[in-house]
Amino acid sequence: MNRNQVLPQVQLSAEPSALKKVDFCAPQSYQGAGFLAIDDMPRLAKEASSIASGDGFTWHIQTHFEDSPGSEPHQILEMDLKGCLHLVCQRCLQDCTVDLDEKRRFVLVASEAEADAYPLEDEEQEPLVASQHFNLLETIEDEVLLSLPLIPKHPDGFCEPHATVFGLEEGDEGMEERENPFNILKNMKKNS
Ligand SMILES: [Zn+2]
């Protein structure tokens, strides 16, 4: 018997505060979608260089049970995240928009020990410890934070290095572009 067909499917509230307490121990599956503004995620708000209207992330979450031989069916959580925020471009030191479009798959496990024992090499899914008061908001924020580029930058060619970031390199480039002073001198002599 497929467990998904007999268990009730519960709609997740789009309300950020409601996402802080989701019962993943109940015999039911979930689905829902919503939008989280940057201010709904305090750790992310700290990373943001500025907050423009529209910045934030649309989430879509769905859970289902998958049969596993020899044990209870596993609860699988699938998460889609799409949106943007502003970070400091490490080239020009101005704000740049960072777009994210991420898909994640998790398996809910019963304990921290089980999560620790979960094979790291499984790149398809990661463990989450299920609880009756699971903080899904924090998990969404974790995933956004983990998806941020280590060195945020505008697309290549879009901006110039800021003098304080690549001061020396910029100076070197400038020298190459300028005409060799000896040639200038030669030309002056020729013309005189
Ligand atoms: Zn830039």
Q: Can you describe this structure in just a few lines?
A:
26% of the residues lie in helices and 32% in strands.
What does this structure look like?
With about 190 residues, this protein is an alpha/beta fold. It folds into 2 domains: about 5-160, no CATH class; about 160-190, no CATH class. The chain is about 25% helix and about 30% strand. The chain has 6 helices and 6 strands, in the order αββαβββαβααα. The protein has helices at about 5, 40-45, 110-115, 135-145, 165-175, 180-190, and strands spanning about 10, 30-35, 55-70, 70-90, 95-110, 125-130. A 6-stranded mixed sheet has the order 1-2-3-4-5-6. The longest helix is centred in the C-terminal third of the chain and has 12 residues, at about 135-145. The radius of gyration is 26 Å and the shape is elongated. It starts with a helix and ends with a helix. Zinc ion binds near residues 92, 96, 154 and 159.
SSE map:
Elements: H1 3-6, E1 9-11, E2 29-37, H2 42-47, E3 56-68, E4 71-88, E5 95-109, H3 112-116, E6 126-129, H4 136-147, H5 167-177, H6 181-191
Parallel strand pairs: 1-2, 5-6
Antiparallel strand pairs: 2-3, 3-4, 4-5
The protein binds zinc ion.
Zinc ion is lined by residues 89, 91-92, 94, 96, 154, 159.
Rounded average pLDDT: 88
The protein's oligomeric status is: single chain
User: For the report, how would you describe the main beta sheet?
Assistant: 6 strands, mixed
How many beta-strand elements?
A: 6
Order of helices and strands: HEEHEEEHEHHH
Tell me the count of domains. Answer: 2
